[in-house]
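Colleagues,

Please find the record for the two-part complex below.
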Amino acid sequence: MEFDVELENITKTFGDQVAVDSISFRVPRGSFFSLLGPSGCGKSTTLRMTSGFEQPDSGVLRIAGEDMSRVPPYRRPTNMVFQRWALFPHMTVFENVAFGPSTRRVAAAERRQRVGEALELVDLTAFVDRKPSQLSGGQMQRVALARALINRPKVLLLDEPLGALDLKLRSQMQLELKRIQKEVGTTFIYVTHDQGEAMTMSDQIAVMNDARIEQIGSPSDIYDRPASRFVADFIGSTNLLPVQVTGCSSEMNEVRLGALAFAVPPSGNVTEGAAVMSVRHEQVKIAHERLDLDATVGARVGEAIFTGSAVRYVLTPEGIDSEIVAEVPHSGVEAQFSPGEQVHIGWNAAAVKLFADG
Amino acid sequence: MVDAVATGSTVLRPRRLPKRRNFMPLFLLLPTLLLMGYTFLAPLATFLQFSFFRFRKGRLEEAFTFETYQRFLTDPYFHASIADTLYMAATVTGLSLLIGYPLAFALWRINRPGLQKWLGLIIFSPILVSVVVRSYGWTVLLAEQGPVNWVLLGLGIVDEPVRLVFNLTGVVISLTHIFLPFTVFPIFSTMVRLDPSLREAAMDLGAGWWTTFRRVTLPLTLPGLVAAAQISFTLALGAFVTPSILGGGRVLVLPLQVYRATSDINWPVAAVGGLVLLMMAFIAVVVFNRLLKFSEI
């Protein structure tokens, strides 16, 4: 497999602030790769080092196999779609898109043809003579995309380009971005703090937190098999409950959650003593009668929150200090459980992930 | 309850929203309007009246004549004066921009806050010293035995002292210095407002430093440049103290002509000179405003 972008032990500090702490990853050619994490985790800095706007303090960065340490931004085979698009306000759509080819001395006739193609790709051919101030957010976003893609970069870098759009347009643009990426076959590196966005579009996601990469994997990998407590918490919605691990073996971990004891498959670096277990909201089952699951406990319904596609129950289990949230798909009928009601809840051992405490 | 009463009363009268004029802005403008009326409009009217009087044999005659206007239009002496004034203002403006733009650029690109503050203060400092003091300072600096000539002679750039003072050169040098803060800060403020990601976008699209400057930074800071030109041009048109001190009586720009006429109680010449100056400033403002509109996006 060929890799378009390779980072090896890249570190970047601003003053005494470590922005990126010795991270390494490789992006396969033609794939959609996302850097996902909360604000300030170092994902944008990583992207800016790839584009050349920042220089790493140490480590090696290769694009298409070539070391980039002495290559300035304007000679890198990358192009960027900026957070607020950064369209040149004094130029028309045509001039904006033609900017890249004109700096690379592409002949006028070919330039015109390529601008036409690029605008066709983003479905904006009718707007060539408009100024950016006469465009909507979604249209500006498309111009920014065309302006970057027209240069046929090896790698397209996208810095939260959908952040300034409204929700409906955002989900529409997500599908569109994915379509364009497939059509042009360019490697995309996409920075976002929105897990839904990363999940929808990415082939691979690197989850970043606090200047480090917590996990790299496919969307289903990081959702179903989170490598750390942070990833479990950041992706999707989960119950994080403090537990005691009472027995560790290669086949099973014995877990005690308050009065409830059950066994779960072994995972990671958990040792006997205090630990944290994660069970996703939708993995917690809820019923009036006793459940046939690996761990069950009686509980009282505290709150029922209707979210449209699902109902979320906040439950107080018997003999356990923490509240547990269960999410049940909304079937169109009335909420099946009402606040104050006594119910049974439970989950399967396979749904439980254990993480070392802290 | 209150609503019910209110709707009840409107039933009786035709539906009309209560007319509420907001007098507050007008009230706040009052001091300015009074001051402008008394110190600008009233003297202007008086001047207009004086401009039609006749001045003959050292005496003022209250007549109605276009004689003085005719003199301004035909007399080469006044033509030279007007041309000198325009030439001086244009040179000062050109020089101010030539020095001010790079200076503003440097001030903008310095990313050490301490140094930036000090440089800003140095650029600003001419305003802190009186014009009279500064102009006298320049006469010393630019004198034939002054430090500037000393350096030029010492470096062998010139063989004999250059006349830098008591002519237009000295006036232009001094005015450029005085107007520097007024040119640097409008330019600087447009630079600061520039979205830094625009320059990054240009570089990302393959533009080196010069292309980025020529195609992105300069066009987007043009409004600041035009504003700076407007300020220094109009200020230079009306400059009086510096031309009178550094001109040494040889630089007869319009404001000095007006001053001279008033001391001769030649009110018609003073009035027409003043009005010509006002016209020139007005035309300059209109032209620069046009340019400004053109340079903005």
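The interface with chain A takes residues 195, 197-198, 200-208, 211, 215-216, 219-220, 297 of chain B (CB under 8 Å).

Comments are welcome before we finalize the supplementary table.
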